[in-house]
Design brief:
transmembrane helix; 201 residues; elongated; HXXEE; transmembrane; 0% strand; mainly alpha; membrane
Amino acid sequence: MTKRPEPYSATVMAILAAAFCAWALLTLPIQGAVILVVASVLGWSGWMAFSYARPVKSRKVIAVYLCAVGFQLIHMAEEYTGGFPHEIVELFDSPRDWPEKEFLLVFVFGFGALYFFAGAGALYRIRVANFFLWWYALGAGLLNGIAHFVFPILKGGYFPGLYTAGGHFIMSGLLIYFLIKENRLLKAEERAAGPIQSLVR
């Protein structure tokens, strides 16, 4: 029988994610904030469903995640050079400004650091670190990729991030596949270890 994992990590991350969502909804253009809220919910849900009780063990999964994070930085370079914060304000005629300095500090440097710290934590099977694997897989990767194909349709032309958006589907698809496969393998290992532990006792 699988030992029930401690609940504290899930609670702490839920509170932090809720605080981040509240900040986004109160300060960013509402359309961009909604994407971040949905990304947070998806990331937390995927983490709870697949990697909370069984943190990732395979280095292959972590390697794919780190490659995805590297791609995310390339994607955000396209966004920055194209003026993404200004363009999203203009696209939705938002009354809220989105300063480029804030975009860089929070979403490029801040989240960039968190992504890599999470990769290091995942190597040691730290439960909270696995949240960020799912944050990228379902939020920053899949959902963000979809949004970047919708924005040009709404604008009627190029929108910053479009050229690298397809890569998000590839990277997030690979990561989702490996994360689910990892969960199945860890479950199988637990089932196989069950009878052995019973014999030892």
